[in-house]
Specification:
Layout (H helix, E strand, L loop, with lengths): L1 H4 L6 H10 L1 H11 L7 H10 L11 H18 L1 H5 L3 H25 L3 H20 L7 H23 L5 H39 L5 H12 L2 H12 L7 H27 L7 H28 L3 H32 L3 H28 L6 H23 L1 H4 L4
Length: 414
């Protein structure tokens, strides 16, 4: 965005347009440029405007708030479909949980990014294909490919939301990093909303119980299920309307959790050796091991998205480098265990899916680690780490598409 700001420093309307299109990116780039622009009236004005702090929340305009309320209402109604039409609960939620949330978020970002009609139509067709496909798969509860398709379809929908989030911007790499940051911010704000909601739920049920009315089951079935899907939608609205709301919290969380996770992983690997437990002959342990790997990878991605914006703190870089190296060790153990199980007992849908995912993660971590080493040695900037991560993200989406749509046919719906 630097190339867009500098040539238009004397055009207030153009700067205002840039700002409204992407407030977070505008503020970041303008803050970087401002030291060389200090003294220019328009630059000083924007500096004061961007750094003015207020305790009041920005609730957007009426149209945007109406869209959020409509999206939340639709998501709530979708979540209540099993109760409204007496649908099998397990069948519906296992296959359609992603379609309750992601289409509503996609609609919101489509409106914010002003996507073209063609892109909106393609997005709607893609979602419709997903709905029809997953609900027409044979109803075999014991089918591994069905379970894999349901899980990986959520990743596909997450990738589609990322496509909408990037929008029509030419700087897609930067927007992908912002998408990772948005996901981290959304986790933080959603957790806060859920905590507040849990407190309100406990108080409400407790108050009614004092007058002899036990409304717990009724409350959960009719209120919690309806309003829970609105949490990420409303959280997204708060983040987009108030960029600084969690902007100062998320970096702190990344800085705190990165060293803690590093220490935990290191101790865990030592404890695993002494416990005698290993993923080579224990299927459940291998599953938990891979879930741990995915969780740590998410923390690394979020930390990279936060760190690559402006930090030059070598301590943070060293922590992330060591975390990446330890995570590679965990990944190699999991990968060797999967290869061992395939060699001993043959290929299955689960083993094939986990093998592909672990290979992707290993390559990604290797590339990120290389960028960290280059940044620490002065041969590259920290922004290169973020760009490497952003460029690699589509590969996860492609693998999720393969597992979702091809694995049932490749393995005969077993």
């Amino acid at each position: 965005m630097k190339l867009e700001i500098l040539p238009h420093l004397d055009d207030p309307s153009y700067l205002e347009k840039l700002y409204r299109n992407n407030k977070l990116a505008f503020k970041k780039e303008f803050t970087t440029l401002y030291p060389g622009l200090k003294g220019k009236p328009l630059a000083d004005f924007w500096h004061e405007r961007l750094n003015f702090e207020t305790d009041e929340l920005n609730w957007g305009n009426g149209r945007e708030l109406g869209l959020v309320l409509m999206a939340s209402l639709c998501a709530g109604l979708l979540a209540k479909l099993p109760a409204i039409f007496s649908l099998p609960v397990e069948f519906f939620y296992s296959r359609n949980i992603g379609f309750i949330i992601f289409p509503a978020l996609a609609a919101y970002f489509s409106w914010r990014q002003k996507l073209s009609s063609v892109k909106i139509a393609l997005l709607a067709i893609a979602i419709l294909i997903g709905v029809l496909y997953i609900n027409l798969l044979p109803n075999e509860p014991q089918s591994d490919t069905l379970t894999l398709s349901c899980i990986h379809l959520i990743i596909v929908l997450w990738a589609l939301l990322g496509f909408v989030f990037v929008g029509n911007r030419t700087n897609s790499i930067g927007r992908r990093l912002e998408y990772l940051q948005y996901n981290g911010d959304l986790v933080v704000i959603s957790a806060l909303i859920c905590i507040a909601g849990a407190m309100m739920t406990g108080i409400t049920i407790g108050l009614f119980s004092l007058i002899g009315l036990e409304i717990g089951e009724f409350y959960f079935k009719n209120f919690v299920i309806f309003f829970l899907p609105a949490v990420p939608i409303f959280g997204t609205f708060l983040i987009q309307s108030n960029p600084l709301l969690v902007g100062k919290v998320s970096p702190v969380i990344a800085k705190i959790f990165s060293p803690l996770v590093l220490v935990m992983l290191f101790i865990y690997l030592i404890a695993m050796v002494y416990s005698g437990k290993n993923p080579y002959n224990d299927r459940e342990f291998l599953l938990i091991f891979n879930l741990l790997l995915i969780g740590v990878l998410a923390i690394i991605f979020f930390s990279v998205a936060e760190t690559s914006k402006n930090t030059q703190n070598r301590t943070e870089l060293w922590i992330l480098l060591l975390l990446s190296i330890v995570t590679i060790t965990v990944n190699c153990i999991a990968l060797s265990a999967i290869v061992f199980r395939i060699a001993e007992w043959g290929i299955t849908p689960n083993r094939a899916a986990v093998l592909g995912a672990n290979l992707l993660i290993l390559i990604n971590l290797g590339l990120v680690t290389r960028q960290f080493l280059m940044a620490l040695s002065g041969r590259a900037t920290i922004q290169g780490v973020g760009h490497t991560t952003a460029r690699y993200l589509p590969l996860y989406a492609i693998w999720a598409l393969i597992v979702t749509f091809l694995f049932p046919f490749l393995f005969g719906f077993q």
